[in-house]
UniProtKB/TrEMBL annotation:
Record keyword Repressor present: yes
The protein, known as: Sin3 C-terminal
A cellular component annotation (GO) from this entry: chromatin
Source organism per UniProt: Arabidopsis thaliana x Arabidopsis arenosa
Domain Retrovirus-related Pol polyprotein from transposon TNT 1-94-like beta-barrel: 80-160
Keyword Repressor (UniProt): yes
Domain of life: Eukaryota
GO biological processes: negative regulation of transcription by RNA polymerase II
Length: 334
């Protein structure tokens, strides 16, 4: 390790798209993933004062004692290292920031006396193992960084209990609920693979109330939300003014879903249960889309039984049904 480095660098876990085995309660957290409240900031006046102090000191060049760990840049995109000497969370990819204040500028000095320029400060939206979303808050944007850093000091100031014992690192919240416990890697580091979620609806949900309602109703299209608002069918639903906007989450999985539907109609998938399982594999068991998807699949299966019962020109009926369902998908979900 390079001269002057004093590192407890990192802890690791995998946050996958489909994590049906995880629990939503922090007290029942999985051993390789964050609980829902990991990055939520408890009320802590000291933390706010410290954060302001660090922001002022950045102009005076903070010292960052970090691990040097070089790998392929693409592999490092989702890897975060916990550093005991880092003043702040730091990231080198601008696209990962849901919100970025580029007026914050300064320099960060490394243990080998080299410097890296800070070109902003903001929040990074991530997807937790249980499907929830949280922010890595107050992180510095440093374009020249090839690795992402989570500040151990920042986590401690938020009130979390971090312990190293028996080659494992554990993190507990203020109520002693286990958030994560992970083994040390062969190179004596604890590496986190955090999934960054930059879909438009998820980036905008904390800025625009209409996007929040879009998520709350399982990615219901804005035309549907606008109708609910206009008819006053939902108490508290605001006026929705952009019904033509689409959701990237739905666009992302639309093609795969339509392929699965075509295979079901074509006979490649001969069991309705297998079709439903394939849909869940596409969207993820903990996805916001799940509620809408389940209702849609139930409607599909009901109509498919009617189609299958008529053996006359079945292929034509299948193609006709496929086109109808494709239109239903476009009208109801985008």
């Amino acid at each position: 390790m390079a001269r002057g480095y004093m590192v407890i660098s990192g802890f690791g876990f995998e946050i996958s798209d489909t994590a049906a085995d995880s629990q939503s309660s922090p007290s029942a957290a999985a051993t390789d993933g964050f609980g829902a409240d990991f990055l939520a900031s408890p009320s802590n006046k000291t933390f706010e004062e410290k954060a302001n102090y660090v922001e002022e000191k950045i102009q005076e060049e903070d010292m960052l004692l970090m691990a040097s760990y070089k790998k392929d840049e693409q592999e490092e995109n989702h890897k975060w290292y916990l550093d005991s000497g880092a003043s702040n969370h730091m990231c080198g990819r601008k696209s990962m920031f849901a919100e970025l204040d580029e007026s914050v500028r300064g320099n960060v000095a490394l243990g080998d006396e080299s410097k890296m320029e800070v070109k902003g400060k903001g929040n990074i939206l991530i997807r937790l193992k249980n499907g929830d979303h949280q922010f890595i808050s107050n992180g510095y944007y440093i374009p020249s960084m090839k690795t992402n850093i989570l500040s151990l000091g920042q986590l401690l100031e938020k009130g979390y209990d971090i312990r190293l014992k028996d080659n494992n690192l554990s993190i507990r919240d203020q109520e002693s609920n286990l958030i994560t416990k992970v083994p040390m890697s062969k190179n004596r580091m604890f590496v986190l693979n955090i999934r960054n979620d930059i879909a438009q609806c998820l980036k905008m949900c904390y800025k625009e109330e209409s996007w929040l309602w879009h998520l709350r109703f399982g990615h219901l299209n804005f035309g549907g939300l606008e109708l609910l608002s206009r008819k006053e069918m939902v108490r508290g639903l605001p006026c929705i003014n952009h019904p033509k906007q689409g959701c990237e989450v739905v666009f992302k999985f639309k093609a795969k879903f339509m392929d699965a539907l075509y295979n079901l109609l074509d006979g490649s998938i001969d069991d309705n249960t297998k079709f439903e399982d394939e849909c869940r594999a596409i969207f993820g068991a903990q996805s916001y889309v799940l509620f809408t998807l389940d209702k849609l699949v139930q409607k599909f299966v009901k109509h498919l039984h009617a189609v299958a019962s008529d053996e006359t020109d079945t292929k034509l009926l299948q193609l006709h049904a496929y086109e109808n369902y494709r239109k239903l998908w476009e009208d109801d979900l985008i």
